[in-house]
From TrEMBL:
Catalyses which reaction(s): a 2-deoxystreptamine antibiotic + acetyl-CoA = an N(3)-acetyl-2-deoxystreptamine antibiotic + CoA + H(+)
Protein name, entry field: Aminoglycoside N(3)-acetyltransferase
GO biological process: response to antibiotic
Region annotation (Disordered) ranges: 1-22
Pfam families per the UniProt record, alphabetical: Antibiotic_NAT (PF02522)
Primary enzyme class: transferase
Domain of life: Bacteria
Keywords of this entry: Acyltransferase, Antibiotic resistance, Transferase
Organism: Kitasatospora setae (strain ATCC 33774 / DSM 43861 / JCM 3304 / KCC A-0304 / NBRC 14216 / KM-6054) (Streptomyces setae)
Lipoprotein found in the keyword field: no
Record field: compositional bias (Low complexity): 1-12
Family the entry assigns: Belongs to the antibiotic N-acetyltransferase family.
Gene Ontology MF terms: aminoglycoside 3-N-acetyltransferase activity
EC number(s) from the headed UniProt entry: 2.3.1.-
Length: 281
């Protein structure tokens, strides 16, 4: 999930200004509460951050420095375009004739764990982390995570097809690891592991998913599998709850120019899970 910075209609664009040094961002991250040695999921809008020396790479470097050698940086490198049920697919195929739809399906790129970029909707920072030497990516062709640091192998291992964002995914491992989520220039509800609570519901709906993956010999594989049907209509209201109820556990402060939030994943998911069954609407 990603956030968008909205500028009022007709408002002039902010002047770019002088790029901020990487060291200045490191200072902001530490002031916000990022700790050396922790596991940190980052979801961001780099546009909201403003100019930084080195661009997206500079922001990644600041995060790596703030976490230190014992810390692990995690990003969501999902590819929702590789799906026949996602909103991206429905928008791209709306109005196509049967012949055009069949051609679209033939042209869908086979997902490759090492080569396929993160979706542009995930933001440039996610792709920069994926490209960083030593980064490891989980094996789900639709909802992969990428991690960099000592805990990367444990966090990204064994991402089952049927478990997009559940217990046997990096989202579940982030929860169990006591990780936190840093949301840079995006709302609190953009924390993807919040989907975990949907897997805990006794009446959770399921649906069939379809995607294309590159096989062991480079062959094109069409995959069909059943998984929990995920929703995000409730996320903004859930974000309001977290903003009200997390108290001092929810840290606020700037990263560059971007209003940002630092939140413990386990506490956030547990609080939202209590609210979820009785939510309005």
């Amino acid at each position: 999930m990603t956030g968008t910075v909205v500028r009022p209609a007709g408002a002039p664009a902010e002047p770019p200004g002088r790029p901020q040094p990487v060291g200045a961002l490191v200072g902001q991250l530490r002031e916000l509460g990022v700790r050396e040695g922790e596991v940190l999921l980052v979801q961001s809008s780099l546009r909201a951050v403003g100019p930084v020396e080195g661009g997206a790479r500079g922001v990644v470097e600041a995060l790596v420095r703030a976490l230190g050698a014992r810390g692990t940086l995690v990003v969501y490198t999902a590819t929702p375009e590789n799906s026949r049920t996602s909103p991206y697919y429905r928008a791209a195929t709306a109005g196509l004739t049967p012949a055009e739809l069949a051609e679209y399906h033939r042209g869908m790129l086979a997902w490759d764990r090492l080569r396929t970029p993160a979706s542009p909707t995930m933001g440039r920072l996610a792709e920069e982390v994926r490209l960083r030497p030593g980064a490891l990516r989980s094996a789900h062709p639709q909802t992969s995570f990428t991690a960099l640091g000592p805990a990367a192998a444990d966090l990204t291992a064994g991402h089952l097809l049927e478990c997009h964002l559940g217990e046997d995914s990096p989202a579940g491992r982030l929860y169990r690891a006591g990780a936190r989520c840093l949301m840079i220039g995006v709302p609190v509800w953009c924390c993807t592991p919040l989907h975990l609570l949907e897997y805990w519901q006794p009446d959770r709906p399921e649906q069939q998913y379809t995607c294309v993956r590159s096989g062991p010999a480079g062959e094109r594989e069409l995959l069909r599998f059943t998984g929990v049907r995920l929703f995000d209509r409730h996320f903004p209201a859930m974000g309001d709850l977290l903003d009200r109820e997390l108290g001092d556990a929810l840290r606020r402060g700037p990263v560059g120019r971007a209003p940002s939030f630092l939140m413990p994943i386990r506490e956030a998911v547990d609080l939202a899970a209590k609210w979820y069954p009785n939510r309005a609407g």
